[in-house]
Amino acid sequence: MTTESDPAYPAHWEADVVLRDGGTARIRPITTEDAARLVSFYEQVSDESKYYRFFAPYPRLSDRDVRRFTHHDYVDRVGLAATIGGEFIGTVRYDRIGADGRSATGPSDEAEVAFLVQDAHQGRGVASALLEHIGAVARERGIRRFAAEVLPANTKMIKVFTDAGYEQKRSFEDGSVHLTLGLEPTAESLAVQRAREQRAEARSVQRLLTPGSVVVVGVSRSGAGVGAAALRNLRDSGFHGHLYAVNEAVTRDLIDGVRAYRTVGAIAAPVDLAVIAVPADRVPEAVAACGDHGVQGLVVLSAGYGESGPAGLARQRELVRQVRSYGMRLIGPNAFGVINTAPEVELNASLTPAPMPMRGRIGLFTQSGAIGIALLSALLRRGEGLSSFVSAGNRADVSGNDILQYWYEDDTTDVALLYLETLGNPRKFTRLARRTAAEKPVVVVRGGRHTPAGHVVPGTRLPDATVSALLRQAGVIRVDTVTELVDVGLLLAAQPLPAGPRIAILGNSESLGVLTYDACLAQGLRPLPPLDLTTAASPADFRTALAAALASDDCDAVIVTAIPWVSERAPADDLAGALRAAVAEVPGKPVAVVHVELGELVEALSAVRGAARPSAPAAPRQEPAAGPFGHPAGPADAGELPAGTRIPAYPAGERAVKAVAEAVRYGQWRRGLADSGSVPGYEDIDEAGAAGQLAGLLAGTAPGTVLTLGEWEARELLGRYGIRVLTTLPAPSADAAVRAAAILGYPVALKTTAPHLRHRADLGGVRLDLTGEAELRRSYEELTEALGKPAELQPVVQAMVPRGVDTVVRSVIDPGAGAVLSFGLAGVPSELLGDTAHRLVPATDRDVATLIRSIRAAPLLFGWRGSAPVDTPALEELLLRLSRLVDDHPEVVGVSLEPVVVAAEGLSVLSAAVRVAHPPARGDLGPRTLPSY
Length: 933
Description:
This protein has 933 residues and is of the alpha/beta class. 34% of the residues lie in helices and 22% in strands. It is built from 27 helices and 39 strands. It has an 8-stranded mixed sheet with strand order 1-2-3-4-5-6-8-7, with helices on both faces. A 7-stranded mixed sheet has the order 11-12-10-9-13-14-15, with helices on both faces. Helix 6 (187-209) crosses helix 11, helix 10 (369-381) crosses helix 14 (482-494) and helix 22 packs across helix 23 (773-787). The two termini are 28 Å apart. Residues 608-636 have low confidence and may be disordered.
């Protein structure tokens, strides 16, 4: 008898999943305690579905059936259930079978599988989610194939199998369809899984941002407090749906003009979203009331959770479990709220101070309410609006990954801005960001280097510089401050991407132009000599000069500098209008403006003046009066002018140049997507041999044990992937050194391998180009006299290799990011400066080509100061082979090749260290699941 408290119960199979419609369900093993749940579930299934499951009328389960379907050994017989609110909505079961189709035990690697989903929940993707999870369980138990018998009329279940992406065979026998599915993940099954993940997670966020009805739980009758503030913002934003307030002591029908109730259950209509603003100890009661009423999602503003210490963290974990048990999703706790400016929604379920953000094309996600206020205010001051805003607080459930899934397919969002304090799972984030960045820019600022209180998502051990490199590989624009986040976002939202790094600079201040020119050089751009229009320049002069620069084939972007005119009266013409006219006349290139004390110009260029925000439907719309720069002074959308004619303005040249430079680099990355490269195949790779060697090495070792391979074991494993490590012979004595040299052939190198001297030629532990026995013995004597006894130094002898550039190639497995490939030059200066580049595995040929060129010391590889260029194609091949090794065999958790001497022709790997362990979990290859903390 197995229960959830039994040690044999496989608790790691439990998982929360997002279904096709955006709701959630919990998948867990079925236990002997589930008999009543199973009977209740079966009673709610239609006769037709029962017939499809058992191929005959089967109105009820017998006691024997119930026992069979609730008693499992979790090896040869496994049952999983999808549950909502603790009740079954779907089940799946497998029974291991032999070649004769009868029940069997290991080593048989085939099992018969069958599903049953409650009719009310069919079409939500329950069976597809169950198939992913039962498949993962089966692989864990040594099962490689599923067999299924399905009636031809059961087209829905046939589609579940055929759409899964697994290798399959199909035949028609004895009136039923016989399906056989291979369970090893394929490129197609992974693509199907990720597409389902994207649709489900995007839909779950869409339900939170586009509710048809909202209730605020915890609204004070006095009008004070968080709940009352959220209710006023919802009311004043002009929300198009139904709005309700809940206060358990309410004595009147209305609070602040909104219909009020004592409980959520008293509302005689469906509720899509609940904003909870009660003390933390009362939140569970509110969640239960919302769940019982069928609410789809929650925004929990209440504090007192993970940010408050261990007790709060435990309360937060229980909150997530409770919310998901009802099939809901959660923003928060300790959240600041959500905003959706879409004209058909106009939702402000947040604590954002008035005025509500304008309607625009930027999506904004933050983990901090304070940073959210700062960013919203900055965008408002700069005349930019939002499509949507989510401030997730402790992000115990909905995270930046979910929001990226939504923005990817959201037509109203052109630019994604994220303030993140932790990345959580860099592997998934970079995967989602790369796909999104291929369609629209993703700009990220990380607010901390360590996990703050309340954010219980597991982090990564990778250095921050490494994470930054991986983000850039994924096309993410990584900036350092929230100011840069706004600066870059404004340019990307308003202007086209530059085609290259050539920058024209023009304006009425020579000194400001020179400063901008220097800033361009510092950012790696190619600025043209600044064009000084002099302080006497009129708006017409600016228009002529800007139009000429935009029309020139010699530049890819233009930065305009402007200072106040040295005149008692303003120029007759409108400068903002002149600049916009030039952009409209010659479109296609980005323009940024650097100004000094010209605040009205900033507003005019952004096409807004005054309180420009979505207005409530009841508010009368007046014809706006003209402002001093020719722009309407009344309410308007930030996207009122055509794209490209809203020109971002910056108070410093460095800020404008930084924004342009990031746009240039992002544009280069986007253009490179057309040739993202490929992972080449090498005929001499012995993948099966490597797998067998690793299995033998790890046989009998406990999970979590990391083995460092001996020299010959490492050489053998690397050799199976075409990575040849130079032979090294031990030299415990001078005579042994001479014998080793005789085997290898002169000239030779004599080295110490003691840990404190390894790779430290600067300490004198290496003697090169020893051409004979006498020279070798003399060097051996000098080495031992200077540095210590042979037993301490552990000397070795190697054959000399052609001279070249010493490099270091490494790969390491990070629990969050997965396998990472690293490259740099060998030596103390590179280590001291952190001059190392990184790429995610598997790396393509294009990835490794850019990898070796991205370090600051890369010129040394390409003939710096007249030296001979080295064999970079050989170096790229080595990186690709190592990438293949660690990608094919997750047991390889660390490889260090140091040094790798890259000569004019060929290269030599002088030393290798390899660490192996039982494969770590690969969440991106497993079934879809929400994080559990």
